[in-house]
Design a protein that fits this description.
The complex is a heterodimer of chains A (about 110) and B (about 120). Chain A is an all-beta fold and about 110 residues long. Chain A has no helices and twelve strands. The chains are: A mainly beta (about 110), B mainly beta (about 120). The interface between A and B is medium-sized, with 22 and 26 residues.
């Protein structure tokens, strides 16, 4: 079975500063990796995904994540954050062997300070 | 726009009074999921449907049931809500995995309060 660890439950950062949200996974088979964002009282929105190919994936709003197989990581980064990026971020993993299931990490609350 | 819709967005029910939450989708996806999310926690999968094939998670309480009358709609029934069932309930959909699409699309959620 796979598992996901998000080491940081809360990350405060000042506006326009860079940020990295860490995600590590555990799986014995090939994985598909996702970052979802959740704003207060809303559902989850897909931010970006890694299925295959280039290990660096980007979102339309400036976030990027790099799949590192040797370190079993999929950290999320943004070079300059905005107040509007304040939200909960969830890393998730799915595998070819799982029955259409996503396994979520415990989430990281990103708070951007003015 | 194709989407996942959940109604109502906020639901208040009394302890022990049955409640039904609804989800509909215009994405024509084969798979529909129900998650329970408590405050500051990750979503927890309750069950999912692959077409009409129902798949219950091993630790989902019997108090939770689901119905999928057609491709577009899926319902979550809580037969006797307890205070511990207060949570956000999220519906999600995905295409058939064999087509190579793996991501899930989430609705806005229904926040359930039990009084």
């Amino acid at each position: 079975a796979q598992s996901v660890t998000q080491l940081d439950s809360q990350v405060p950062v000042f506006e326009e500063a860079p940020v990295e949200l860490r995600c590590n996974y555990s799986s014995s088979v090939s994985v598909y990796l996702f970052w979802y964002v959740q704003y207060p009282n809303q559902g989850l929105q897909l931010l970006l995904k890694y299925l295959s190919g280039s290990t660096l994936v980007e979102s339309i709003n400036g976030f990027e994540a790099e799949f590192n197989k040797s370190q079993t990581s999929f950290h999320l980064r943004k070079p300059s954050v905005h107040i509007s990026d304040t939200a909960e971020y969830f890393c998730a993993v799915s595998t070819s062997g799982s029955a259409r299931q996503l396994t979520f990490g415990s989430g990281t609350q990103l708070t951007v300070l003015p | 726009d194709a989407m996942v819709i959940q109604n109502p967005r906020y639901q208040v029910t009394q302890f022990g009074k049955p409640v039904t939450l609804s989800c509909s989708q215009t994405l024509n996806h084969n798979v529909m999921y129900w998650y329970q999310q408590k405050s500051s926690q990750a979503p927890k999968l309750l069950f999912h449907y692959y077409d009409k094939d129902f798949n219950n998670e091993a630790d989902t309480p019997d108090n939770f049931q689901s119905r999928r009358p057609n491709t577009s709609f899926c319902f979550l029934d809580i037969r006797s809500p307890g205070l511990g069932d207060a949570a956000m309930y999220l519906c999600a959909t995905s295409r058939d995995r064999q087509r190579g699409e793996y991501e899930q699309y989430f609705g806005p959620g229904t926040r359930l309060t039990v009084t």
